[in-house]
Amino acid sequence: MIATVVTEPTVWDTVLDSAALVLILLGALLCLTAAIGLLRFHDVPTRLHAATKPQVLGLILICLAVALSLRSWAAVAFLVPIVLIQLATAPLSAHMVGRQAYRNRTIDEKALYVDELARDRENPPDAR
């Protein structure tokens, strides 16, 4: 028979578990606001803002909470690439969707303060 040692949680364990719980709740709330923003906002730029910023921050908070609750370097090594890939792909995909919406003229151009692409629309660059 193998004897297992059961230790009572320390104060630090309780603090880290509580911090992980708060981070999970904040991350889930940010992801929920991103989903609501996608449904409620009316134009492409505001939807892209709702899809990228709170969602990415929510994912980072959830990954940090998972790392705190597991307390393992293997978990951190697994979660860091997830966060880095999200940080690299979310702005890039939002930029591409926004650029395509501009080219398709599905953006309310009156709402734009600065239109840096208007010159390219009037005089398109040579397709080489």
Low-confidence stretches: none
Distance between the amino and carboxyl termini:
76 Å
Computed over alpha carbons, the radius of gyration is 22 Å
SSE topology string: HHHH
Structure class: mainly alpha
Give the mean pLDDT: 87
Number of strands: 0
- The number of helical runs is 4
Shape: elongated
Q: How much of the polypeptide forms β-strand, as a percent range? A: under 5%
Question: What percentage of residues falls in helices of 4 or more residues?
Answer: over 70%
The major pleated sheet works out as: none
Description:
With 128 residues, this protein is mainly alpha-helical. Helix content is 73%, strand content 0%. Helix 2 runs antiparallel to helix 3. The radius of gyration is 22 Å and the shape is elongated. The relative contact order is 0.10.
How do the helices and strands line up, and which of them pair or pack?
Elements: H1 11-40, H2 44-70, H3 73-103, H4 118-122
Summarize the structure.
It contains four helices and no strands. It has helices at residues 11-40, 44-70, 73-103, 118-122. Helix 1 packs antiparallel against helix 2 (44-70) and helix 2 packs antiparallel against helix 3 (73-103).
Question: Which features characterize this protein?
Answer:
128 residues; mainly alpha; 4 helices
